[in-house]
Specification:
Number of helices: 3
Order of helices and strands: HEEEEEEHEEEEEEEEEEHEE
Distance between the termini: 101 Å
Largest sheet: 8 strands, antiparallel
Strand order of the largest sheet: 5-4-7-8-1-2-3-6
Helix content: 10-25%
Length: about 270
């Protein structure tokens, strides 16, 4: 009888303890989130979203939902420092996305180097996110600028005209980032295929060319006609932001090569011109 009584008491204590533990444990819930739209790269058709989640326990989750992924692949994903146009080192390694589902879910509160990072710091980060084709290939299939590098809806495009090579046409587009810097994108057609063509911003009007060098873009790929550059300062280290590009007294010049700068492929006035 005494043994049965002791067992009954122990059982009652267990029930009370279990009940209190369940009530006292705080459930980890989503406080806020922000979604970025990834764009495809390098001829792949992969696109989708990256959702950054602020969790109540102080961790961050990144949820990838991709389409166009190879069904039999695992696609590595990373958050990098810097902008996609400039490229930069890996800061946070994410769980690879399943090619079959296009999904990935990663939860963390530190960077790869062990330093702490909060949700707000991630939203303010000078960074970008990439998805790669596989673990043995560094080629990017999709990407998006994040944090302070996120692109706004403010954009301005200028037409570029052929000069020394017939048939060249296209434009340059400037898009403002949240931090005020600008993404510059060339989109030209009928360039010499396989070439790599320098492009610059010079001071003054085309009618009074040449002016002094203000900014050197990343070279334009002759095959794709594209180039991506981040503009934050001029060649002298002075600030050069998106709003400055709307009023600048300048023009854009695309040339054949670093050694043949007197052969102009395309030109166009920008800003106040």
């Amino acid at each position: 009888m005494e043994i049965l009584k002791k067992i009954s008491i122990l059982f009652s204590i267990f029930i009370v303890f279990s009940s209190c533990t369940k009530d006292d444990v705080e459930e980890n819930v989503e406080i806020a989130s922000k979604t970025y739209q990834l764009q495809s790269a390098n001829g792949y058709s992969v696109s989708g979203t990256a959702r950054f989640i602020n969790n109540s326990n102080g961790t961050i989750s990144v949820e990838l939902n991709l389409t166009g992924t190879p069904s039999n692949a695992m696609l590595p994903a990373y958050i990098h420092s810097n902008t996609a146009a400039e490229t930069g080192p890996i800061s946070i390694s994410l769980v690879p996305a399943s090619g079959a589902s296009g999904e990935s879910f990663t939860t963390f509160n530190t960077k790869d180097d062990g330093t702490q990072i909060s949700y707000q710091q991630l939203l303010n980060m000078d960074g970008y996110l990439t998805v790669r084709v596989d673990s043995n290939n560094s080629q990017i299939v999709a990407y998006v600028d994040i944090g302070q590098n996120e692109l706004t809806q403010n954009t301005t495009s200028y037409t570029l005209q052929e000069v020394d090579l017939d048939g060249v046409s296209g434009n340059i587009t400037f898009t403002e980032r949240i931090n005020g810097e600008a993404l510059a994108v060339f989109n030209l057609s009928n360039l010499p295929s396989g070439g790599s063509h320098p492009a610059y911003i010079y001071s003054g009007d085309l009618a009074n060319a040449p002016g002094s060098l203000i900014y050197a873009f990343n070279n334009i790929d002759g095959t794709t006609g594209k180039s991506f550059s981040n503009i934050a300062e001029d060649e002298n280290g002075n600030p050069l932001l998106y709003q400055d590009l709307l009023t600048i007294d300048a023009y854009v010049d695309v040339v054949l090569s670093e050694t043949t700068t007197n052969y102009h492929l395309a030109q166009g006035n920008i800003g106040s011109n």
